[in-house]
Amino acid sequence: MQYEKVKSNGSTSMEGCYLLDDNQIVTTCFDNVVRVYDVKSGKLLHRLTGHKTSVTLALSGVTPYFLTYGSHAEENCIFLWNKVTCSRVATFTLDERVNTIHWSDDGTFFYTTINGVWEHKVAEVIT
């Protein structure tokens, strides 16, 4: 699989690294691209694009999805991704800045918080 170079003035330096499952690692980078790698070989499997600002991840061990969101006020956008295919399942655009996103304990919905206080239930997720 060939990937085009992402045209960005941002650095591709890694910002965060997360274990997606037993076989995949996900990184967020300063160029606003999320990259998925094979744990054993280190091979780049997917480039997840679409965010305009620095990207933050929200993971849950009980749902087949993960969330990414632009962490600056000018984006206000959340993407829902399938863990297996790494395809974008849904996009949520909010009226205000996304501060932090959390999954419910059972993985059936996610919500935002501001300063640690529940703010908005964003969406029900069918698993």
Quick description:
This protein has no helices and eleven strands. It has 127 residues and is mainly β.
General description of the model:
With 127 residues, the protein is mainly beta. It has a single domain, classed as Methylamine Dehydrogenase, Chain H (7 Propeller). It is built from no helices and 11 strands. The strands form 3 sheets. A 4-stranded antiparallel sheet has the order 1-2-3-4, with no helix packed on it. A 4-stranded antiparallel sheet has the order 5-6-7-8, with no helix packed on it. Strand 5 and strand 6 form a beta hairpin. It is globular. It starts with 13 loop residues before the first strand and ends with a strand.
Q: Which key features would you list for this structure?
A:
about 130 residues; mainly beta; Methylamine Dehydrogenase, Chain H; four-stranded antiparallel β-sheet
Helix/strand-derived category reads mainly beta
Tell me the series of helices and strands, N- to C-terminal. Answer: EEEEEEEEEEE
Radius of gyration: 14 Å
Note the beta-strand portion.
over 45%
**Based on the structure, what is the oligomeric state of the protein chains?**
single chain
Low-confidence stretches: none
Distance between the termini: 29 Å
Corresponding CATH architecture = 7 Propeller
Number of DSSP-assigned strands: 11
CATH fold call: Methylamine Dehydrogenase, Chain H
